[in-house]
Amino acid sequence: MSPDFVPSLDPLMDAGSLKDLVASPRYVRFGPFLVDRQRQQVSRGGTRLRLQGKVYQVLVVLIQKQGEVVTREELRQALWPADTHVNYDANVNTTVNKLRQALGESTEKPTYIETIPRKGYSFIGSAEFAEAPFPVESPGSQAASDSAAATGILSGRTEPRKWLTLTIVILILAGVLLGAGAATLWIARFAPRLQH
């Protein structure tokens, strides 16, 4: 990469963040998301997401420090130059919320971005880094992977939905068996009377 490339990323990111970005691998993968940091593009299942500007920058900063708490002050320094006069708290909150919305997650059940009360945010996903593009999974294998993860097979957790589904199936089977038993009793008891 040429030194001229660095300023073209975003002139508002501080020099330390730019140096870290250039020194780290170009491609990042977490969950179903792929990030091309050179092109500043994020995609999910081959579909490009519209993460631009500060929303993209927040994602990059959080991924660079995955597992660590990124303070609101660190985000402010990464997103706005020192001489910018904005309501930093409101803008950081809005930017992080836009990122969560783009990733399809909520604050109640974070998958990738956890709020650390009165401190900042943490990227809790597991990001992989590579110099070469990651292989694109076929839609069928991605659907199978998403389905397995949703039922807790890959995560090793027992999901409440899994138990709810199992309970409903058992209740339906019990109802069918009870209904069949009641029908058999009714036939045994009343069928001879109907024939007379």
Can you characterise this structure?
By secondary structure, this protein is an alpha+beta fold. The protein folds into two domains: 5-150, Winged helix-like DNA-binding domain superfamily/Winged helix DNA-binding domain (Arc Repressor Mutant, subunit A); 158-196. It has helices at 5-9, 15-23, 53-64, 72-79, 88-103, 139-150, 160-195, and strands spanning 27-30, 33-36, 41-44, 47-49, 69-71, 113-116, 120-123, 128-130. A five-stranded antiparallel β-sheet has the order 4-3-2-1-8, with no helix packed on it. A hairpin with a 2-residue loop joins strand 3 (41-44) and strand 4. It is elongated, with a radius of gyration of 26 Å. The termini are far apart.
**CA-CA gap between termini:** 96 Å
* CATH fold topology of the largest domain: Arc Repressor Mutant, subunit A
Count of beta strands: 8
Annotated CATH architecture of the largest domain = Orthogonal Bundle
Q: Which series of helices and strands comes N to C?
A: HHEEEEHEHHEEEHH
Tell me what portion of residues adopts beta-strand conformation. 5-15%
Assign the CATH superfamily of the largest domain.
Winged helix-like DNA-binding domain superfamily/Winged helix DNA-binding domain
Shape: elongated
Using the coordinates above, name the CATH class of the largest domain: Mainly Alpha
Largest sheet: 5 strands, antiparallel
Question: What is the helical fraction, as a range of percent?
Answer: 40-55%
Residue ranges: pLDDT <50 for 5 or more in a row? 1-19, 141-158
Mean pLDDT over the residues: 76
